[in-house]
Amino acid sequence: MGFVELVRFAIGALRGHRLRTALSVAGVAVGIAAVVSLTALGEGARQYVVQEFSSLGTNLLIVIPGRVETTGMLPFGGTTNDLTLEDYRALASRIPLVVAAAPLATGTEVVRAAGRSRSVPIMGTTADLARVRRLEVASGRYLTPGDPDRGGSEVVLGSKVARELFGAASPLGQVVRIGDWRFRVVGVLAPRGHSLGFDFDDIVYVPVRTAMRMFNRASLFRILVEVRSERELRQGKQAVLDLLAARHRVEDVTVITQDAVVSTFNSVFDVLTLALVAIASVSLTVAGVGIMNVMLVAVAERRREIGLLKALGASTRQVLGVFIAEASVLSSLGGLIGLAAGWLAVRAFVQVYPTFPAAAPSWAVAASLAVAVGVGIVFGAVPARRAARLDPVQALVGR
Amino acid sequence: MIELGDLWRTYRVGDSEVHALREVELEIARGDFLAVVGPSGSGKSTLLNILGCLDRPTAGRYAFDGRDVAAMGDAERTRLRQSEIGFVFQFFHLLARLTAQGNVELPMLFAGIARSERRRRAAAALDAVGLSDRAHHRPDQLSGGQRQRVAIARAVVMDPGLILADEPTGNLDRASAAEVMDLLGEMNRAGRTLVLVTHDPEIAARARRRVRMDDGAIVERT
Ligand SMILES: Nc1ncnc2c1ncn2[C@@H]1O[C@H](COP(=O)(O)OP(=O)(O)O)[C@@H](O)[C@H]1O
Ligand SMILES: [Mg+2]
User: Would you say the CB of residue B41 lies under 6 angstroms from ligand 1?
Assistant: First the structure.
């Protein structure tokens, strides 16, 4: 009795018990679909947050004036030096690990144009911010590169600011007033959306020197520094600290790394993934128990058939083969249907929330299929083996 | 062909022992036609099951064509059931999901006979029992007599030398019973050994030899 014959016979048997077959296939399918969609959601949530952070730049160091890191107190007896544009220039040019740096001088001011006004955060910075923060320009261009001391009266609008002030009309070349100052719009950024509670589209960008004059400040709010790779963050941080300590003659700045935040979130989501694995395992176990019951009932119901097959000259191995083939066909079929259903559910979810990168991790798919097929085969084969080993008459009369 | 010597089959029921067969001595020659009669519970089925290798004796000797069945391994007993013994049951024991043709093909399936050959031989066997036109019907679309004829076709399709029939007409009306008996008689005349359990004296009368059983023992031979 060849493999093809065996499978054909098994399929015949499954078709002969349509209701039972349908129920058990459904049982397997529901379990697998649950595992696939649940893990897809968990993995998606995690990816989402990690991506949010990566979009801010994971190779990023943030330099803040003052030592707030450990105690939140200022160094004893010392005064804190301001972060200056000179510091920024030194950071950008003298540390080889640094690929880009951008100064930030911020404040909030009323922006007016075309008879409308809006109070928004103002970011004073340089052309380097586009790289450091991965800003995308929708139309026009970003701030002019060059000497940060030069100032200038150009402005780049966040997409929401542009929409609120100019509606559908193009703001390029138009004049906007920020406080008492006049600016000319040189660019509009692409929408970025909210990230971590902050609306990146409701901001305007102006040259750093201009912002400092506008807000009457001599110091920077912070300096963003990008290093070549995440692996060089620690080294870069030390280089920044050393350089500024040398310039200020005291350690009076704090350098925080974005990866510290990312890794905190990562570990939170590791826990979430773990929880999802637990849920998945439970649904898988439920599916497994279902398959198990179906197979046990199938074998019990068909003791008589086993006896008959043996009486007709089937060997113990052949009878076992028939049942294993049936269990395999059954659980594979259920598994495939479950995968398809889970995949459709995830697709539907992504249709509704396109930014959510839901996708079942391959380990979950593999594990759920393995458990379904494994449980099906074991609980099909073990009782079948017991029945197949009996003398045919015992199985036939079923005492 | 068959030799039984001092054969016992004892069931343990709770603390007591039931002797379904006791001290059975029996010889059956090739081509013989033996009827086994006796009251219900006298051990007729038990005897037939042991002859068919569906059951094992508790003690005693069973030789099939001179070979000691007790000493046989599982594989050899399977081969015996597969190709040397055809069994006909009182309750037909057809698989409900298969057609008549499919049921007749079953023994050949496990014997590893190729599909086309199975088709051909099953069709011939169904033809021999007069059911060519019912080949693609399922058991529930057949009458009792037709079912038993399918079962007979299944029993002979591997061309066994021995046919064992346990009350094959027990569930049939007289006309169907007569047809089934004619078929079995034909198989016997074609050279197959036939052992038949029956309650019907008329049927028993057709056999060449008869044994009467009572309480597990053979009490009369004619
Ligand atoms: N599996 C079993 N367990 C216990 N007793 C059994 C079993 N099978 C048969 N018997 C007993 O063995 C005796 C013979 O049964 P059986 O061969 O079926 O009789 P018959 O076919 O002549 O009616 C009966 O008393 C029956 O109750
Ligand atoms: Mg009986």
Answer: yes
Q: Which atom of ligand 1 is nearest to the CA of B13?
A: 4
Shortest Cα distance, chain A CAs vs residue B197, angstroms: 16
Is position A63 within any domain?
no
Q: Does residue A197 share a domain with residue A328?
A: no
A113: β partners: A116
Q: What's at B171, amino acid-wise?
A: N
Query: Could you say which ligand is closest to the alpha carbon of residue B38?
Result: 1
Return the half-sphere exposure (C-beta side, CA atoms, 13 A cut-off) of residue B186. Answer: 13
C-beta separation of A306 from A384 below 8 A? yes
Ligand 1 atom 2, closest CA: B11
B40 vs B18: CA distance, rounded Å: 15
Closest residue of B to A388, CA-based?
B74
- Strand stretches in A213-371, DSSP E: 222-227, 253-257
For residue B41, the CA-to-ligand 1 centroid distance in Å is 6
Residues A227 and A271 in one domain: no
Sheet with B16-28: strands ordered across: B16-28, B2-13, B59-64, B67-68
Which helix (H) or strand (E) is B88 found in, with range? strand B85-88
Interface mutation target, options A5, A305, A312, A315, chain B, most CBs of B under 10 Å: A312
Q: Are strands A222-227 and A60-65 parallel, antiparallel or unpaired?
A: antiparallel
The reply to whether A244 and A335 lie within a common domain is no
**Same-domain check for residues A116 and A227:** yes
CATH architecture of the domain covering B30-56+82-221: 3-Layer(aba) Sandwich (3.40)
In a domain, A352, yes or no: yes
Same domain for A278 and A333, yes or no, is yes
Instruction: Write down the domain spans for chain B.
Output: 30-56+82-221
| Banded model confidence at residue A72, pLDDT cuts 50, 70, 90 | very low
Kindly indicate the confidence band of residue A195, based on its pLDDT and cuts at 50, 70 and 90.
low
Average pLDDT, chain A: 83
Strand partners, A119: A110
Check whether residue A147 and residue A206 sit in a common domain. yes
Give me the pLDDT at residue A54, please. 66
Domain boundary among A218, A249, A280: A249
What local confidence, expressed as pLDDT, does residue A172 receive?
92
Mutational test site, ligand 1, from B12, B13, B44, B46, max ligand atoms within 8 Å of CB:
B46
Domain hosting A203: range is: 81-249
- Say yes or no to pLDDT of B21 above 90: yes
Look at chain A and report how many structural domains it folds into.
2
Does the beta-carbon distance from B54 to A392 stay under 8 Å? yes
Say what the pLDDT of residue B7 is: 93
ipTM for the assembly:
0.92
pLDDT digits (tens, 9 = 90+) for B121-164: 999 999 999 999 999 999 999 999 999 999 999 999 999 999 99
Same domain, A242 and A275: no
